[in-house]
Amino acid sequence: MDLNKQILSKHSMIVTLMVILVVLIGGGGLWVYRLAWAPNFNPDETVYVYINEEKDFDDLCRQLKDSADCLRIGSFKRLSGLLKYPASMRTGRYAVKPGMSNLALLNDLRRGHQVAARVTFNNVRLKEDLAERIGDQLMLGKEDLLRLLNDSAYCGSLGFTPETISTLFIPNTYEIYWNISADKFVRRMKREYDAFWTPVRLKKAEEIGLTPIEVSILASIVEEETAALDEYPIVAGLYINRLHAGIPLQADPTVKFAVGDFSLRRILFEHLEIDSPYNTYKYVGLPPGPLRIPTIRGLNSVLNHTKHRYLYMCAKEDFSGRHNFAVTLAEHNRNANRYRAELNRRQIR
Q: 317-322: long-range contacts (C-beta < 8 A, 24 or more apart)?
């Protein structure tokens, strides 16, 4: 009897120990699950955290609380410590998705698995404008990019000069890693430039008698000359006619560029006397660089310009932004007189 009691007592003790062990294991498992695998970020939609060279771990945690709706920032910090993440932070742009766990996010952060940014630039005039636009979208500093674009040796290594380097950039939307360096960004743009200048486009440029850089310079003048998109090929054809005839382009936008004031509404004789290689009233041929970064539409308008006999153009007197085109100087003078009369009537100086 005593032996049976002893056996039952030992059995009861074993069962009790097993129950305690199961509870401990279950509790520990739950703790580990909440620490690593449980959803801990609950933004309404995917958000992105940005880590640059100045950002530290505390900055990251504040960003996760503010923008990624982190439910338990303490658990994120604990797991980060266990994985030794704070000591090995990597720059980049990282996605935080609804329902994401600490471990999933930390795996991306630790391995540098960032999500590319969509970088867009258009309607850009000067290199300074481009550098600022890119600097607003990527980690690189605008000063770093501008330094490269003004470096003669660097530009030369890519086949450009500081005056023509902006023709390298083809306005579009690109997927680029946010922490890319200025040099790698420019070289990525060079690959996009080479891809744009297909054999077909190169052949068209050759048939016109222009290099790709010269096509870009002319396209920049066309885009500054008219806001009417359907006029692009006509204006391009007019300037190509003048180039082939050896006649100065006499493009008003080049004078505005030389003056440094694109807001000029009336070009005066004093402006035409400015001694600048960009003054196409004074110097025959194309200026040494573009007036702006032309769009793909502008580039194609030069390559596929309208073939006609026009040599002259003048803004229409209705101020519609469109132009009257002429073959002869006499016809052009009549158009110009009507426009000047309207300028005077409106007292535009």
A: 317/341, 317/342, 318/342, 321/226, 321/227, 321/228, 322/226, 322/228, 322/231
Average pLDDT, the chain: 91
- Say how far apart CA 79 and CA 152 lie, in whole Å: 50
Q: Which are the contacts of 208, defined by CB distance < 8 A and separation ≥ 6?
A: 215, 240, 302, 303, 305
Q: Are 249 and 242 in contact (CB under 8 A)?
A: yes
Residue from 284, 253, 259, 287 nearest 271 by CA: 259
Residue 133: which H helix or E strand, with range?
A: helix 127-137
Q: State pLDDT tens for residues 232-266.
A: 999 999 999 999 999 999 999 999 999 988 888 78
Residues spanned by CATH 3.30.1490 within the chain? 39-111
- Residue located via tokens 């330094």: 147
Query: How far is residue 166 from each of residues 23, 55, 145, 292, measured CA to CA in Å?
Result: 68, 32, 12, 8
Question: pLDDT for 36-45, tens place per residue?
Answer: 889 999 999 9
Residue 4: Cβ within 10 Å count: 8
Residue 205 token pair: 């440029």
pLDDT, tens digit (0-9, with 9 covering 90-100), for 293-313: 999 999 999 999 999 999 999
Contact 316, 322 (CB under 8 A): yes
Which secondary structure element, helix H or strand E, spans residue 292, and what is its range?
none
Class in CATH terms, 39-111: alpha beta
Interval 42-78: pLDDT, tens: 999 999 999 999 999 999 999 999 999 999 999 999 9
Contact by Cβ (8 Å): 257, 278 = yes
Helix (H) or strand (E) holding 153: helix 152-157
- DSSP single-letter state for residue 70: B
β-pairing, 323-326 with 100-101? unpaired
Number of other residues whose CB lies within 10 A of the CB of residue 83? 17
